[in-house]
Design a protein that fits this description.
The complex is a heterodimer of chains A (127) and B (368). In chain A, 19% of the residues lie in helices and 33% in strands. By secondary structure, chain A is of the alpha+beta class. Chain B has helices at 8-13, 33-42, 66-73, 122-133, 156-163, 166-172, 205-217, 225-234, 271-280; strands at residues 17-21, 24-29, 45-48, 53-59, 87-93, 99-109, 112-117, 138-142, 146-152, 180-183, 186-189, 198-204, 221-222, 284-291, 302-306, 312-323, 328-336, 342-347, 350-357, 362-363, 366-367. The chains are: A alpha+beta (127), B alpha+beta (368).
């Protein structure tokens, strides 16, 4: 059974989001997603400073088996990316919700509250 | 359609992650595909390959001629098989020289050859074999009563011998590479799809689960289809449906070595098409690629190559993955014959540098 922390928001495409104290939103892929992908071997991160709207492809995570797009869950500017993943993408497998975060967004719209909560995501992946 | 092998419950018990593969519910890994890969390169792992199709060819009448049938059916020549148990790798071609399937045929006696074909091509293969067998009075019997477990790795031999029945061990002990031996309803081939030493064990389905447990107890770890793919690609072994299909001949699939041209009067299906293709000049070849930058090579990515005189040519990756042994991405690619030592691969619109190498990356645990 994969882990779904209750304090996070989620998307149907398996990204998680956490609102930080400084107003930035941290994004990663869920435990369920990393389990589906298997051993991760490559991450193509977005460039800091780029602006996206919700739903844009902004990042790619690749396991031995397959490449998978990560979608911008909310509109905004990429404020920071997790450079540690460039050399050690397996951190995502080991710690999807902490050390395996992908990037941080400076939101440009009020979209965060509309995302799924943990219960809704749990139902989503149980289907 | 969703089939399960007789070992399905074992896969669930051993925490395999089940996926659909060619209509079969198979384990893609049992936790970590990369760990399983290293397990086979460094120690011993086992794969359930019971979805593959075992076919016994026999004498339907006194007038049967299995050898002549296989000499017509296959691009490689079973006349090379003079010793009992010897195996031969071959393509089975259509009239256009395209590959219907690749297979292994074991010569057991003049009235018994055993053929192992792919799961994904089962129906068309059997139809094709049956279509041509009747003219030679050859009986075709699918052995769906047998399971198959591949035990692979540098320690596969000693560990398998701890788990196999004594008489099977006796039959397997003297086997040279690419030979097989039968023992009652059991059959052991010193063959595999990983580039490591080991055995492929065919046995009655009713006994498969017990062997699986005994192998596990002997330290042979279960490995999924994910590791099987990275292992075979590192070993430079072709995958049917990716590296060759009905639309590509062995001549442009890195499989010229499997075509037996002599004797010249041996007429096999596809021969005249291959001769025409050769006479017209072979235009493509399969090479290995090693990505020199970060990223992962995948099937169908476009490859840009220099073909001399400042001219550019284009090719395509047929299989690509991340190589756990080399810690780099590797691939097989079909490229123009004149391709030099480097190329660029188009990955999501970016052109990344790759080296062009012989299509074999790792053998017997060593990088080549």
């Amino acid at each position: 059974m994969s882990e779904v922390p209750s304090e996070l928001k989620y998307t149907k495409s398996h990204e998680w989001l956490r609102l930080e104290d400084d107003g930035l939103v941290t994004v990663g892929i869920s435990d369920h997603a990393q389990e589906l992908l298997g051993d991760l071997v490559f991450v193509e991160l977005p460039e800091a400073g780029l602006e996206f709207v919700a739903g844009d492809e902004c990042c790619v995570v690749e396991s031995v088996k397959a490449a998978s797009d990560v979608y911008m869950p909310i509109s905004g500017e990429v404020a920071e990316v997790n450079e540690a993943l460039v050399d050690e993408p397996e951190i995502i497998n080991d710690s999807p919700y902490d050390n395996g975060w992908l990037f941080k967004i400076r939101p440009s719209a009020e979209e965060f509250d509309d995302l799924m909560d943990a219960d809704a995501y749990q139902d989503e992946i149980a289907e | 359609m969703s089939n399960k092998t007789v070992l399905f419950d074992k896969h669930v018990e051993y925490k395999g992650k089940i996926v659909d593969f060619a209509g079969w519910q198979m384990p893609v890994n049992y936790g970590s595909q990369i760990d399983e890969h290293h397990q086979v390169r460094k120690d011993a792992g086992m794969f359930d390959v019971s979805h593959m199709v075992i076919v016994d060819l026999g004498m339907a009448t006194e007038a049967s001629d299995i050898k002549a049938f296989l000499q017509y059916l296959l691009a490689n020549d079973v006349a090379k098989l003079t010793e009992r148990g010897k195996a031969l790798y071959s393509c089975m071609l259509n009239e256009q020289g395209g590959v219907i399937d690749d297979l292994i045929v074991y010569y057991m006696s003049d009235d018994w050859y055993r053929v192992v074909i792919n799961a994904g091509t089962r129906e068309k293969d059997l139809a094709w074999i049956n279509k041509h067998a009747s003219a030679y009075n050859v009986s075709v019997k699918e052995r769906d009563d047998l399971a198959m477990i591949a035990v692979q790795g540098p320690h596969a031999r000693e560990k398998a011998f701890q788990a196999l029945p004594v008489d099977v061990v006796e039959a397997a002990t003297p086997l040279k590479r690419f030979f097989g031996a039968d023992c009652g309803d059991w059959f052991v081939g010193r063959t595999g799809y990983t580039g490591e030493d080991g055995f492929e064990v065919m046995l009655p389905e009713t006994e498969a689960a017990a062997l699986w447990d005994k192998l596990a107890a002997a330290g042979v770890k279960p490995c999924g289809l994910g590791a099987r793919d990275t292992l075979r690609l590192e070993a430079g072994m072709n995958l049917y449906g990716s590296d060759m299909t009905e639309d590509t001949s062995p001549l442009i699939s890195g499989l010229s070595w499997t075509i037996a041209w002599s004797p010249e009067d041996r007429d096999f299906i596809g021969r005249s098409a291959l001769e025409k293709e050769k006479a017209a000049g072979i235009k493509q070849k399969i090479v290995g690629l090693v990505l020199e930058e970060k990223g992962v090579l995948r099937g169908h990515q476009k490859v840009l190559v220099d073909i001399g005189d400042g001219q550019q040519g284009e090719g395509e990756i047929t299989s690509g993955t991340f190589s756990p042994s080399l810690q780099k991405s590797i691939a097989l690619a079909r490229v123009p014959v004149a391709t030099g030592e480097t190329c660029k691969v188009d990955i999501r619109g970016k052109l990344l540098n790759a080296s062009v190498v012989k299509p074999v990356f790792v053998r017997d645990g060593q990088a080549v």
